[in-house]
Amino acid sequence: MTTHGEFSPSPASFRDQTRHNPAARPQGEGGFEREMGREGFSGPTCHLRHRHPPTGWTSFEGPLRPRAYDLSKLAAGPSCPLQARRLMHSRSAEIRFWRLDGRMQSLVRNADGDMMIFVHNGQGHLYCDFGHMAFRDGDYLLIPRGSLWRLETEEPAEFLMVEATNRAFLLADSVTFTRPEIDDAYLQQQDEKNWIVHIKRESAISTLTYPFNPLDTVEWKGDLSVLGINWRDLRDRGSQALFATDRLEIGNFVRHPKQQGRAAARPAVCHSNDDVDELMFYHRGAFLACENIHPGMITFHPSGFPHGMDTGGAAGNHPASYDSIPDEEVVMMLDSRDMLHVDDTIPGGVEWKGYVHSW
Ligand SMILES: [Fe+2]
Question: In angstroms, what is the span from residue 175 Cα to ligand 1's centroid?
């Protein structure tokens, strides 16, 4: 085998290249900017200026289509989170939306992979193999594959859930996660009654029945457990990666449009996220990216299809409404290296079909 030496995505001789032809129009600051970037823009990048907007298509066909869904329009789904409504899936992930009002009557274990549960609304208690942990809106809860758990809510709650299929989530080093405790609440929920456990493996559900509550851990030690973090407790605001597998990354994004001023409110330049499919779940705020987006909505930008360069954001093109926008916008972001497929079982009326024409 030949030795080729070191490789780099951007060798020194290739950096900071520019090309320009004075005969090209437009000159100066005119035209339409597009950004190409590898590895979620952390790799080699290039800014290009075009004469026409890259989102200026007149028609499109084929499997790629940016989409937006209003999940608040979904009916309450099944009581078992393992069977909650699936929105999208890939060979390495499943994305589901789930509602719970009250207490789960059964325990669950996902044998298909780790689960990340983002609490969009509501608060309550998580009981699991590792103890008890209160939760509230804005929490990211990570449940390792194989963990037994259940939730109780104090008010109707909504969750966006991501399964890392046949994978384990890695954790961001810079984030301090909290862990469950074997506390009084945990001990008090233990009893000798019949408990049912649902186990999901390759999407099929199996059921075990115990004559006692198997959430009866008396002690644990090690570096594997359920854990959580609320976006309000993140040291780094802005964009913060939280969980990753070899095929996807989940992060939190906070923007303070009033503090950061109008410049920060400018929408991102056009791009086609060439390494990943992008998913954004809008949690809090009024979104500068697009005026029709509100909390509880999810947008999907398939890799290769240009998007951005918004023209109708809450502040970007609406100066009159700038003072009335909320202080904060909070988004959960997911980048998937594997192509995400939209489930065709999502009911009609949930999708905002005009989204693709909003740029
Ligand atoms: Fe994007």
Answer: 24
pLDDT band for position 101 (50/70/90)?
very high
pLDDT (average), residues 130-156: 97
Give percent of the chain above pLDDT 70: 89
Separation of CA 123 and ligand 1 centre (Å)? 31
Mean pLDDT of the 150-170 span: 97
Please give the C-alpha separations between residue 235 and each of 45, 175, 194, 204, 290, in angstroms, as whole numbers: 27, 8, 43, 40, 27
Of 213, 232, 251, the residue at which a domain comes to its end is: 232
Q: Does residue 322 sit in helix, strand or coil?
A: helix
State residue 233's pLDDT score.
95
Contact residues for 7 (Cβ-Cβ < 8 A; gap 6+): none
How many structural domains are present in the chain?
A: 2
Q: What is the whole-number distance in angstroms between the Cα of residue 339 and the centre of ligand 1?
A: 15
Domain boundary among 181, 202, 232: 232
Ligand 1 centroid to Cα of residue 241, in Å, is 16
Q: Is the pLDDT of residue 318 over 50?
A: no
d(CA 345, ligand 1 centre) in Å? 25
> So what's the pLDDT on residue 42?
76
The pTM of this model reads 0.91
User: How far does residue 278's CA lie from ligand 1's centre (Å)?
Assistant: 6
